Amino acid sequence: MKKFNVAENIMVTTSKSFKNSIQSAVDFTSRERNSYGQTIYDRSFIATIVTFNPVNKEVEYFAVREFVDTDNTKRINELIQDTITRISSKDEYTQNELVAIIKASEFEYYGLVGYPSKEEQENRNLKLNNKFMSLYINIISQNNDNNQEIEVLKLSIRSFNCLKRAGYNTIQQVKNATLDEMMKVRNLGQTSLNEIEEALGIKFS
């Protein structure tokens, strides 16, 4: 599934309908709770995958469910990727682009034992709104050039492959690297280093 490109869809991202849909996804994730205020009411709800369908211009979201130990990060990530693969394989979703993954574990335990009081509920709603705003701002911030994939630098195949193999996927990651770290990248010689510096308009120090 292709990643949602904010720069290409900036008018969509800043629209009211997009913003409301992201908030609905947050609300959907938070509703998976029991009467005690716990987010994961039966430990089967893992995450919500948020996508954008460019055909009908709508945000869609899908639940990831399976009984699994919430501390088993590796297994949870595998289940999320499996769900993304299944979504991508369906005809009606083949064009969908990945916007965000909201893990249930990111949500707090709200309230004490029993039904939450009015004050606790108001506090919970405030926290949920903050969670939504944080997620939305994070999506918007992807329009920053530094968060773009290194593909946009149009580097030579040699330089590009060296960076990818070393785990440098975004412009920000490359910019944050020191000269010593760059020199340790396998097969990255001075010529490639000069090329990268020129493409970024920086000098590694």
Summarize the structure.
The chain is an alpha+beta fold and 205 residues long. The chain has helices at residues 10-13, 16-31, 73-89, 118-141, 157-165, 171-176, 179-183, 190-200; strands spanning 45-53, 58-65, 97-103.
Topology summary:
Elements: H1 10-13, H2 16-31, E1 45-53, E2 58-65, H3 73-89, E3 97-103, H4 118-141, H5 157-165, H6 171-176, H7 179-183, H8 190-200
Antiparallel strand pairs: 1-2, 1-3
Question: What would you say this structure looks like, in words?
Answer:
This protein has a 3-stranded antiparallel sheet with strand order 2-1-3. It has helices at residues 10-13, 16-31, 73-89, 118-141, 157-165, 171-176, 179-183, 190-200; strands spanning 45-53, 58-65, 97-103. The chain has 8 helices and 3 strands. Helix 2 (16-31) crosses helix 4. The longest helix is centred in the middle third of the chain and has 24 residues, at 118-141. Helix content is 45%, strand content 12%.
Taken in chain order, the helices and strands follow as HHEEHEHHHHH
- Helix count, DSSP H or I runs of 4 or more residues: 8
Secondary structure: helix percent = 40-55%
Total beta strand runs: 3
User: Runs with pLDDT <50, length 5+?
Assistant: none
Label the overall shape.
elongated
The spatial strand order of the largest sheet comes to 2-1-3
Percent in strands: 5-15%
Q: What's the pLDDT, averaged over the residues?
A: 84
Structural class: alpha+beta
User: Mind telling me the C-alpha Rg?
Assistant: 21 Å
Give the N-to-C terminal Cα separation.
37 Å
